Amino acid sequence: MPMPPPAQIGQSFHEIDTPALVLDLDAFERNLVAMAAFTQAHGVRLRPHAKTHKSPEIALRQIAHGAVGQCCQKVSEAEVLVAGGVTDVLVSNEIAGAAKLDRLARLAREARIGLCVDHPDGVREAAEAAARNDVILDVLVEIDVGGRRCGVAPGEAAVRLAEAVARSNTLRFKGIQAYHGTAQHMRSIDERSEAIERAGLSARNTVDRLAQAGLNCEFVSGAGTGTFEIETQSGIWNEIQAGSYIFMDADYARNRQANGEPFRSFEHALFILAGVMSKPVPDRAIVDAGHKAAAIDSGLPIPFRREGAVYTKPSDEHGVLTGDPAALPHRGEHVLLVPGHCDPTVNLHDWYVCVRGMHGPDAHVEALWPVAARGALG
After folding, report:
1. Number of separate domains in the chain
2. CA-CA distance, 192 to 348, in Å (whole number)?
3. Is 72 exposed, middle or buried (0-12, 13-18, 19+ CB in 10 A)?
4. Prior bond to 19 cis, omega within 30?
5. Interatomic CA distance for residues 140 and 137, integer angstroms
6. How many angstroms separate the CA atoms of 349 and 7, rounded?
7. What is the largest CA-CA distance in the chain?
8. Are 128 and 238 part of one and the same domain?
9. CA-CA 20 to 30 A from 216: which of 13, 59, 155, 329?
10. Range of the domain at 344
């Protein structure tokens, strides 16, 4: 069962218990507006990735800003989203096994539901599940555009799968998924552009071959926070699946623009609020946020607006801040940490503590949102 929230609505920022997952509402809302403005100006659909936030509260705010729906990776995430009022969900992943596919098909009685396939057995199993549950499922054929993960080969192999989908009475062929996950974290704009250019050639070739086979590819879906501008400029992708833009973690901030400056399309909005539990010497402060509060697969958290302080040596329940003694907090103080990777960090917490005016004198807790799909792995 979820733990009680670490704060109450109306409390001051300084009264939040630690460690806590804190959302800067002002920065978050500016990020929502920025992406909505970009996609609307360029005429592409926005289908944000809910694996980032795991929250119907956030999903509905994205939809209110023009998103067509959500995508997610797991059937259980889709179940939470639909229960929370989201009416258009794409599981941008392959689903295997009758039990999971039946759960997904049942959701199609309440919402528009899609999934990806990259194998004939996936087509057959999805069609059978849809028939058992008397529903229609939307299907994207996923192609491997360089990530070497899921995805059928572009071109003829993808066309054969699409034809199998189109022959089914219980599936609707909607297009292709062309997502290059590796490219999201290539640091230079040249590297990212080159990778997406190659991906685009594969996607364009597949779309052309589908047309020759008499199949309409309504959507070319993919793109992420690190590359969405490049996919949009290509004219090939027409649906953007970026997710992390709402939070902007430390890893994405390491990407570089053409002028060598850091990637600054969006603001840091998600933080781990940690408390200093010990300061045994002037150049070492121990905080109460370790491995169980922050994922470190994409690097350690970064102390926010504390030049000269470095987060290091995390253990289960501890993190160590070292560096210039003048930059380190005192015992009992709070420290904001920017997570290295927002998605798995969110999955470690039960609540978003939503703060208004976070960097001002009147910072206070405006809302508490559950991480409703925390642990939704199946």
Report:
1. 2
2. 30
3. buried
4. yes
5. 10
6. 13
7. 72
8. yes
9. 59
10. 13-21+264-370
